[in-house]
Amino acid sequence: QVQLVESGGGLVQAGGSLRLSCAASGRTFSSYAMGWFRQAPGKERDFVASISWHGFTTLYADSVKGRFTISRDNAKNTLYLQMNSLKPEDTAVYYCAAKAPGTVGREPWQYGYWGQGTQVTVSS
User: Fold this and answer.
1) How large a percentage of the chain has pLDDT more than 70?
2) What's the half-sphere exposure (Cβ side, CA atoms, 13 Å) at 31?
3) What is the DSSP string of 47-108?
4) Chain centre to alpha carbon of residue 33
């Protein structure tokens, strides 16, 4: 099992940057693929990015490609999402999630463990 806690959300102006972190507990973090998802009010939870267990493979939603970067530090049991050139439409609650086996995936049902989420608000 793995427990996930997100941090780093906040209020930022359009064009600004934020870095989200997801701290994982448990000794098996490095065996999971990890993902970031987001959910805006009244909308479904959408895929943002995914990274394989070793960090060599990444996958992004078209809407964030070139602006967001997912990374992980297995020694620190931590997942990151660097978000640049933020837009008002990026406003949402952002969730990190863990997936086994450790290959990337874009579907929420593929992920068995979820954090509680962190709010990101981008003002215009």
Assistant:
1) 100
2) 8
3) EEEEE-TTSS-EEE-TTTTTTEEEEEETTTTEEEEEE-S--GGG-EEEEEEEESSSS----G
4) 11
